[in-house]
Amino acid sequence: MTEMTIEVRDSLAPQIQSFGVWLSTIVELAAANFKTSAPQKAAAELIDFLSNTPSPPEVMNYFLSEKYQKRLDNLLDLNGESEINERETEELSEWTKLNHISILMKAQAAKLIKGQNR
What we know:
The protein is an all-alpha fold. Helices cover 69% and strands 0% of the residues.
């Protein structure tokens, strides 16, 4: 991982510092540039969750809200039945990207939990 130094307004610094270990995930989600609605909203939901500085166990127990999980399940079904259109394929690709970020976030949480138990 690369360490970076950035300059931010003094008024913004406390908020950014409060994100703690989840800052890099928040930045990654913001930079993902999701173009389809449901992944955009799910990423915003995840950013909101992380900006409240959850504990590592809370992060491990985080899952998509039911409405987004249903949308993802629907896309997976369409894809499995080869009935998915181009727009849905793009959306599914974005869900894959969001899932990858979530896996990395949970791996970081697991590592933090393991470090606490030593």
